[in-house]
Amino acid sequence: MLRVLSRIFLGLALGFIPAAQAGLFGSLASMAGSSGSTSGDAPPPFDPAQPPASLAETFVKTYGLDKLKTKRVAITSFGVEFNRKVHVSVSDRNIITDTYSNNKTDFTLEGVPDEVMQRVADRAYDQFVADLQHAGFEVLPQETLRTNEAYQTLIKGAKAQEKTNIEYKISKRFDYDHDVSSTVVAPHGLQYYEPEIDEDEGRGAAGDNMLGVIGSLAKNVGDKAGRKIRMNEVEAAKSLDANILKARFVVGFGDASASTVQQHSIHTDYLREEVSQKLTTSNKNSAKSRLSILGRGESYIAFRTAEASPYHKERTTVHGGKGGLLSKMMVGTEHDSLDGNVTLWLAESVDSTDSFLADKVKDATTASQEADNKSSSGFAAATAKFGQFIGSSQSKSFVAQADPDLYEYLTSAYLDAVRKMFVAKLSGQAK
Fold this sequence. Notes:
single chain; alpha+beta; 15-stranded mixed sheet
């Protein structure tokens, strides 16, 4: 029965019936922003019954819209990124005993065929172009771009691809790693290229500590490749007499967590002149599925205008405000961020509470992992009593098995919602 319903819903999502008339989100229980809020308060709720323009005022942030002097655009890069694996690793060091523990969690998505990802990307692009045209934008045909020499120079220099697998870090803290593996799919045989490190706010700009800043600085020194791409985009904009437009929509499938805590206690018996100590390590691992269109700058559209400079002059961030003094000192100059000199980004993630799974999330920890975990725990207990504890580690794996029909339906539906909010901002319907 569930599969029958899912196919009906999928038909609605793929445009057989207009979403607004069919109540595309009628079967969805609710939506909420992700836990990526900058404050301790809960993120704002996403109410699909509200008009896109009203939702955009909360969920979409913009920079530089006044720089768009023309509504003629050339889409040079469009990609839907599908998260396939999340890895988190957390470390804890006890300064009293000089011991170190580490805990890792891997969470993998399975059951989403390539053809499903391709259909989602194709539909997202088609609807995006249609919405832009309806809002009064002139979108240059891809045939026009392919015959343009400046466009060809840009695509070759940026090493654009139809499909690519990428890996990146979200966190740069010393004691915590958050890594993501994804597949990015371009629509209809078109091209997608990744933004440069200094223009991808969440994946390469200065991070949470000095190490992140130094890493960003090292990669930006010289920056000849990144500057060349920006120069080629400006030249393409001039040659095509249009604003260069790039879009990335990121689809998440859930969260993974890992925690580790060391507890150290010492007992002294003065009468017997004995001293004993105990060191215990508590590790916890978990994974939770949730389909999301990821915010905090992960999903965005960006423009490069013909008047843009390939050199960095001004910096704004998805976290709001201008770059700080440390950023100016370490990176050199402030700059336009998020892949262009005009940007619109999803400020908060849009999450689905409806399941896309064929089964429950399963513990997929291998026998080898369990043996290593047990060995590490036993070694810790044996050595702790001698005051020679070196450390322990634990590694757990989880798998989410997707129902491909439900995944396609939900992903398409939520991409529709995000796309409409972006266009509402671009067209001036939303403040």
